[in-house]
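--- STAGE predict ---
source: upstream dedup step, 1 unique chain passed
mode: sequence only
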Amino acid sequence: MRMKNIALGYSLPVKMISKAKLNRARIYVSGENLFEITKLNDAFDPELLGAQDYPLNRAISVGIQLGL
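--- STAGE serialize ---
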């Protein structure tokens, strides 16, 4: 089992952001290749058949989207 990609976000209520003269505000976090659970050999990745065997890169992104 592998967590390839996940994204979570929350849109702030209009009452909370109207004081800042915003129409929209959203906070989000997303992650790629967060973890892998396997009984297979660590060097074996079935998605890379025949390709070079490099470790998976983890990435975590956090952001804010604002709309005026």
